[in-house]
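Entry for the shared binder. Reason: the reviewer on the internal report wants the predicted structure included alongside the sequence.
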Amino acid sequence: MSLKYTPILPQMVYAGLAEDLSAKAPVLAEMLRENHPSGNSYMDLFAELIRKHGKKPAKGYARLLGADPRQFDGAIRCMSGISSHEWMNEYLRLVACDLLEHTQLPFKAIGKVMGFSSSSFTQFFQAYQHMQPYRFRSLKQQNRNRGYHFP
């Protein structure tokens, strides 16, 4: 007998940006709403830790949850269908898209708030959204595709 269940994906848990965005918010948790409950307390704890801490190695999240990293990854994979690393990156991609679309924060500030080093945010965004952050922001905020050097 096989059980069928709906995988718990980041899109189901991520609730978006808080209503009152402060340009000086020092931590990611202050910029994001509380996550939607998924019905699974383990996944909810993982999502909450990502909301608070941003980009960290999956091993770090396993340690925070008191789990062996391999068992942690297996549990996340079992509940979501993707690895803990993929789940975290998809959650952070959703956050990055919201911050780029709904704020005027500089890219370095967004990266810092999300736990990235100064140059790695742009690389992360390019890899997971398949476009540069400035192009995404331009498309979303002005509803047009602007070149980098041209108005």
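Summary line for the report: The chain has one domain: 10-15+29-141.
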